[in-house]
């Protein structure tokens, strides 16, 4: 198992947050592993834990992820380079968020006064909705990080906006096989052009973000998200 002081990575993050019992001394964690053919009781917190007591969690919320994909798409020349750069960015983002979490955890654990200094309730609610919707690592750090930083948007969306009804979904026209093939081709080309245009807007915005930005809920992003609620 990973040492408590071992640097956290994507590969050891799960085991770094599980107990490391001495099964001969810690009766609390004993279980009849031999009954099922296991030689080591530690499978309780290794293979069994990973397979049957774990879920995948996104590192970034969809907006941050889309931003990084577009940024890398502007740099990569082929698929292999694209995937290689994505892997590098994945590790960078995880390390960045992990550093922010360690700082937040230390402050909230060691200084109880932070719990009495909650941010504006509307902002806290918006951050919670972001966490509830995305359940990503950065949204979790952003929620708890709001207790230890003032680096937050000054004008979160008003409650009235959050309470607005969702716009009615437009009824999609029926698709008939074999018809309007040329039109569909034109639509596909326009869609591809639009996608390239969107990614072009992300040029020059790559690299690691500051840890404080992980705790920010950008005003424009909030307006887009919560107007859909």
Automatic annotation (TrEMBL):
<feature type="compositionally biased region" description="Basic residues">
    <location>
        <begin position="204"/>
        <end position="213"/>
    </location>
</feature>
<protein>
    <submittedName>
        <fullName>Uncharacterized protein</fullName>
    </submittedName>
</protein>
<feature type="region of interest" description="Disordered">
    <location>
        <begin position="155"/>
        <end position="229"/>
    </location>
</feature>
<feature type="compositionally biased region" description="Polar residues">
    <location>
        <begin position="181"/>
        <end position="195"/>
    </location>
</feature>
